[in-house]
Amino acid sequence: MNYHFRKAELSEIAQIWKILQQAIVRRKEDGSDQWQDGYPNPEVVQKDIEKGEGFVLVEGETIIGYSAVLINDEPAYEKIEGNWLTNDNFVVIHRVAISEKYLGKGSAKMIIKFIEDFALSNNIYSVKADTNFDNIAMMKIFENLGYTYCGEVFFRGSPRKAYEKVLVKSF
């Protein structure tokens, strides 16, 4: 398969929003409160892309996944109830969503691996992320990929499980 991970373009907001809407419905069907309050929305995606932080996973020309990727930019992470593994520069993963047709094929793991490569290419050796307490699928992905549970962070008044992975420099 021919997969690429690249910055999203403003012209792709509709396709990305369709994938996020599918994920919002899946979260609800799983009994999760995550993403059930009007966030994320197309305006959030537009801001991600305008700031150069919106990324898509594509197979050929087809967008199959979306994620926001930020560097050192998550104020909520300063107030963790617990402890991060590192205090150096870090990459943040937000809003991972996979197209309905590509579920169960390891696409979310692929996005996270691409983000880890992105971090290393920027000489950053820490990736941090968080998820809702009831997003079992995402917690399993983090654990399977070697992320360490570090404590709780709070977004819009809700506690979230915070994870970090320290990447190894490759020579």
From TrEMBL:
EC category name: transferase
SUPFAM superfamilies, alphabetized: Acyl-CoA N-acyltransferases (Nat) (SSF55729)
Keywords for the protein's UniProt record, in alphabetical order: Acyltransferase, Transferase
N-acetyltransferase domain segment(s): 3-169
Pfam family, one: Acetyltransf_1
Enzyme Commission code: 2.3.1.-
InterPro entries reported for this sequence: Acyl_CoA_acyltransferase, GNAT_dom
GO molecular function terms listed in the Swiss-Prot or TrEMBL record: acyltransferase activity
Protein name per UniProt: GNAT family N-acetyltransferase
